[in-house]
Amino acid sequence: MPILEKAGYNAFRIHATDVLIDLLTDSGTSAMSSNQWAGIMQGDESYAGSSSFFHFEASVKKITGMPLAIPTHQGRAAEKIIFTILGGKGKYFISNTLFDTTRANIEFSGAEGIDLLCEEGKHPTIPAPFKGNMDVEALRKTIKEKGAENIPMVMITITNNSGGGQPVSMQNIKDVRKVCTEYKIPLFIDACRFAENAYFIKLREAGYAQKSVLEIANEIFAYADGCTMSAKKDAFANIGGFLAMRDLDLAIRCRNLLIITEGFTTYGGLAGRDLEAIAIGLQEVLDENYLQYRIRSIEYLTNKLIAAGVPVMQPAGGHAVYIDAKEFLPHIPVHQYPGQALVCALYLEGGIRTVEIGSLMFGKYAIPEEGSDGERKLVPAQMELVRLAIPRRVYTQSHIDYVSEVIIDVFQKRNEISGLVITEETPMLRHFTARLQPVTAS
Ligand code: F0G
Questions:
Q1: Dihedral sign, CA of 146, 99, 285, 266?
Q2: Contact present, 378 and 359 (Cβ < 8 Å)
Q3: Measured from the CB, is residue 190 less than 6 Å from ligand 1?
Q4: 215 to each of 212, 220, 286, 290, 296, how far by Cα in Å?
Q5: C-alpha distances in Å from residue 212, one per residue of 61, 83, 223, 277, 323
Q6: Ligand 1 pocket, 96 CB below 6 A?
Q7: Is the CB of 241 under 6 A from ligand 1?
Q8: Residue 181: helix, strand or coil by DSSP?
Q9: Is the sign of the CA dihedral 427, 430, 434, 439 positive or negative?
Q10: What is each CA distance from 310 to 178, 385, 393, 414, 422, in whole angstroms?
Q11: How far does Cα 145 stand from its chain's mean position?
Q12: Backbone angles phi, psi at 344, to 5 degrees
């Protein structure tokens, strides 16, 4: 049976050995440095109070300035803990855009997630410097509507992964902080790609060109009460994450839950060697030569695609190139998942694995109205994007040239691509495991 068909037209179900260039994610797929590997060899595997934990804690503190660092096995474990404690029915969490696992953890607690992305962020092909910003006016309005007492946290995702890897400006973080202070709502940062965001601030925001990425990161975190982090991104680790915060009472509650679900407070769900890799990676990512190369290589692929007329998110994001599938495949309606159709076409053409960030990932079904035929209607996502996430320190320029050639070939025969229908799905995070089939086959 052909690989795609066997995988139910879902790239998550394809075996990695059947993939030529893997751009599914930049999470946990980066190449660790020789220093990180050396650190791994020196990991202290003591159950409690290992030296690797203190190394990790000092590294987190140096960047975030937050006194309380709680290791977890990855980002979503940190999310599960904080939203279990702060969430629940009747609560609202407001963000620029929540990542899928973040939203899922909020909803799993019974609470609701609200995305308030700025207007510029909603138009993929129109460039603007900080398309990850939160709409501050909408934030005020939503707080008034829902009641500050029902909003346990505002969360800013940097860079805004689901919104195209676009950065958030320091000014926007400051403005959101001001509103949060006014209404006494804690502000948390989803910090997975904090260094890429800080570098964009250095490049694009007045007053920051002469500041180091560390200084900029310090300022970002100074406005926050806490953060969640997946160390699988900007910390170059293959596994790991953490929660960091200033409030000791909240930290004690988090640690109590951590012991039940992850492990003792000084290792979370990690081995000592993983803590070493994170401690070292967090500092390596501040290297501005590396960040220049990183941001420039994403821009290189984006510009090649723009030159060929391929509709992509502009300007280039921090960790990935995002193709606007709605424009790429205008003949496929959103309920036939144009993003996923493009994911399949790129795999079929060149063995490139990408991921849909659109209505397969974020679409919901409206509850059928009484008296209707009972058929569920898809409420589509805001955008239909296909993400090509570039693992850090892995691929060369020739790989990227190949990727652009494949995309351009597919673009030239885009009219031959057909939509997909879902044949199997789960109620939450369905994109990971769903099965689909081409419309033509149904
Ligand atoms: N927040 C953001 C912004 C993310 O991008 C991710 C993961 C998480 C939280 C969760 O972290 O995977 O360590 O549990 N993003 C990956 C991706 C999976 O492909 O973008 P995790």
A1: positive
A2: yes
A3: yes
A4: 5, 9, 10, 17, 21
A5: 17, 33, 18, 23, 31
A6: no
A7: yes
A8: helix
A9: positive
A10: 40, 13, 26, 11, 27
A11: 28
A12: -65, -40
Q: Are 236 and 285 contacting, i.e. CB atoms less than 8 angstroms apart?
A: yes
Single-letter code of the amino acid located at 234: D
The CA distance from 329 to 291, in Å, is 33
The residue whose CA has the least distance to atom 4 of ligand 1 is 99
- Return the closest-CA partner of residue 139 out of 104, 187, 103: 187
* Ligand 1 and 74: CB distance under 6 A: yes
Output the residue whose Cα is nearest ligand 1's atom 12. 75
φ, ψ of residue 421 in degrees (nearest 5): -120, 150
Residue nearest to atom 9 of ligand 1 (CA): 75
pLDDT per position as a tens digit, 378-420: 999 988 999 999 999 999 999 999 999 999 999 999 999 999 9
Query: pLDDT (tens digit, 9 = 90+) per residue, 175-205?
Result: 999 999 999 999 999 999 999 999 999 999 9
272-284 and 34-41 helices cross at what angle (nearest 10)?
150
Cβ contacts of 287 within 8 Å, gap of 6 or more: none
Which residues, other chains included, contact 348 with Cβ-Cβ below 8 Å and sequence gap of 6+? 4
The radius of gyration of the chain's CA atoms, rounded to the nearest angstrom, is 21
What would the two tokens of residue 119 be?
């207007």
Strand partners, 229: 242
302: tokens are 């984006």
Strand ranges across the sheet with 92-95: 68-72, 241-245, 226-230, 187-190, 153-157, 92-95, 112-115
Cα(227) to ligand 1 centroid in Å equals 14
- The pLDDT assigned to 441 comes to 57
Q: Is the CB of 192 under 6 A from ligand 1?
A: yes
